[in-house]
Specification:
Elements (H helix, E strand, L loop, with lengths): L1 H4 L2 H11 L7 H23 L4 H4 L3 H22 L2 H10 L39 H7 L5 H13 L4 H7 L5 H10 L6 H7 L5 H14 L4 H6 L5 H15 L4
Helix pairs in contact: 2-5, 3-5, 3-6, 7-8
Length: 249
């Protein structure tokens, strides 16, 4: 394997994706693996895609050349890392390789008990159906599963609760809210319970949900605040998910 690593083609391809400062060693390759390479390629391709030239104020033709170089480097390295000899070596030495060589800023932090929180990056294809922005980022390999959950939790905490809005609008009083909470079926949302029990009309429930969504902060703000993505990248990704979803109207 070391002989192959010394070839000019493989070394050059690694530098295209990881930069000249990365030392390509056996340990690095075992940690990387084909899945880690895929995540790195997706992030690099996103960074250099010609469609983002205007956002970054760069020349589109120059970015297109870099994008092609990254794609070619990925193809060469994927074939190299997927070779039978290398796969056997990686599996024998490190049966549970890390999914990505560059950790998500929000992943794998120690829990209160001192352990590690399980996390992973999606390694398959992007699903052929409509997706929300957070889902698109996860299925594109840009963020981890744990980061997606943290983003959704953050977003929901930015908006007032269904019960608070319903009470403010006098659709429900405190006694009715208490009864609804007590009668909720497992997994049922409070709006669904209120509708099922006859305390709200479908129109009232829809009005509260619509107002709640209107007050909700864009999930992209979470990724910007955490330093995971830049505002320009969010703008590009919003357009990307819109382009993806338009096929599934």
């Amino acid at each position: 394997m070391n002989t192959a690593l010394n070839t000019r083609e493989i070394t050059s391809a690694f530098r295209v994706l990881f930069g000249a400062d990365v030392e390509v060693t056996d340990e690095f390759l075992r940690t990387l693996g084909p899945s880690g390479l895929k995540v790195t390629f997706r992030r690099k391709a996103l960074e250099l895609h010609p469609d983002r030239a205007r956002i970054q104020g760069k020349d589109e033709n120059e970015m297109a050349e870099h994008f092609i170089a990254v794609t070619q480097a990925y193809s060469s390295l994927l074939a190299f890392l997927s070779s039978e000899d290398l796969s056997t070596t990686v599996h024998r030495t490190n049966p549970q390789p890390r999914n990505t060589p560059r950790e998500d800023p929000a992943e794998n932090r120690a829990s209160e008990t001192g352990g590690k929180t399980h996390d992973h990056f999606w390694q398959g294809l992007v699903p052929e159906n409509r997706l929300l922005l957070g889902q698109y980022l996860y299925y594109s390999g840009i963020i981890s599963w744990r980061t997606l959950i943290k983003a959704i939790t953050w977003q929901r905490r930015q908006r007032p609760s269904f019960g608070h809005i319903a009470a403010t609008w006098k659709f429900l009083n405190s006694e009715e809210l208490h009864i609804i909470s007590a009668e909720r079926v497992f997994g049922e949302r409070i709006g669904g319970s209120a509708l099922r029990l006859g305390y709200m009309t479908p129109y009232q429930r829809s009005a509260v949900l619509g107002f709640q969504r209107w007050l909700q902060r864009p999930i992209g703000e979470f990724f910007v605040k955490k330093g995971i993505l830049h505002p320009g990248e969010i703008e590009y990704l919003v357009k990307a998910v819109q382009k993806h979803n338009i096929r599934f109207r």
